[in-house]
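Reading a protein record of the kind used here takes little practice once its layout is understood. The reader may check this reading against the record printed directly beneath this paragraph.
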Amino acid sequence: MAIPFTNPYTTHNTDLPGDCNIAYIDEGKGEKTLLFIHGLANYALVWKKNIDYLKQYYRCIAIDLPGNGLSDQNPHNFSMAFFADAVHDLIKALNLKNVCIVGHSMGGQVAMTTLLRHPESAKTMALCAPAGFEVFSALEKTMYYSTMHLFDFFTSEEHILAQTIENSFYSSPQQGSSVIADLKQLMRTYKPNYYKKMIEACIKSMVKDTVYSQLQNIQQPTLVMFGKKDALIPNKLIHHTTTEALAVACTAKIPNAHLVLIPDCGHFVQWEKAEEVNKNIVAFLEEKL
């Protein structure tokens, strides 16, 4: 696929089982490899502020999940298990060693699912505002899906995308303008209805395939980072609790996990507070990997 935006990095592609073709950025060198996984409807460049700093210490690989960014637009099921298997297959295909999987939002849920399904994939994990901690009852799932379809009826996909990214920042929502512009350009490359079907499938799997009940089975040292002002996790319309309460409770279930709560920061942790996230990752990796 032609790149419809300015990309400061070289993009590579590799074929994987299951009719997947993954696009990825590969920057820096080192004995340790960071594998970055973006969130819902995002792309690899949401890690730019992290790659630009961390590549001086580590090999940094940021992927476009199948169906996203510059990766394939084939008819996958877009479940968390599907994405996790694709991540595992990529790690094998590139023969990556000493891996730390780094995931944001849905990418955090994919990261956890990867280690639960393929524990040999990585030695450590770092999570930025991960999805997957919340548990939804049958009624809550129905409410979630109904809300999703209501937004579809009243507004455009591009407007929803922009609004969601802006709501991911605690201060200066306009700092996500470059990401929004790139993603709108990417959205226009999708086949008719493909983008909408992919997003719906992702959200349904995120809600259905929560990892809460399996957190105790994650054995890898794990760094969890949340912005204290996260407006997206937990879902405020359904779960009347705080980000901090959810983060503390769920991190405690992972046997070897450490939680960092970042003040004055929203959901887009790695972008809004990149310097703090980068320093936390370096300190964590120098101790654990």
